[in-house]
Specification:
Length: about 110
């Protein structure tokens, strides 16, 4: 048996090979962890490079201190040509005596 698939048996002090369901559990966990790490690194790399578009409904406007609707928000739900949002513009900082009510839909 290869050394990397053996482990020490505490009772006898000898190495014991992984086999059966334990070996398959180790393989499954390794495969899933590898895919998870790959996707995590891919997502981080794409974010660092600035690839993609924002997914929030409200995004920062070109005017400093203002928010507007995200033109790309509907792309998650329909084709690019079928989705449009009604533009609105409001300040990021809300005054203390103001209540914001936002109704989405038609």
């Amino acid at each position: 048996m290869p050394q990397d698939r053996r482990r020490l048996d505490p009772a006898s002090g000898r190495h014991r090979a992984l086999h059966g369901w334990r070996l398959w559990c180790l393989r499954t966990v390794t495969a899933l962890a590898s895919v998870g790490v790959f996707l995590f690194l891919l997502e981080g790399g794409l974010r660092l490079l600035g690839i993609g578009y924002p997914t929030r409904f409200f995004v920062e406007s070109e005017q400093k201190g203002m928010l507007t609707t995200n033109l790309y928000f509907g792309w998650h739900y329909q084709q690019e040509t079928l989705t449009t949002t009604q533009p609105c513009l409001f300040p990021v900082a809300k005054q203390p005596d103001v209540i914001r009510i936002i109704v989405l839909g038609e």
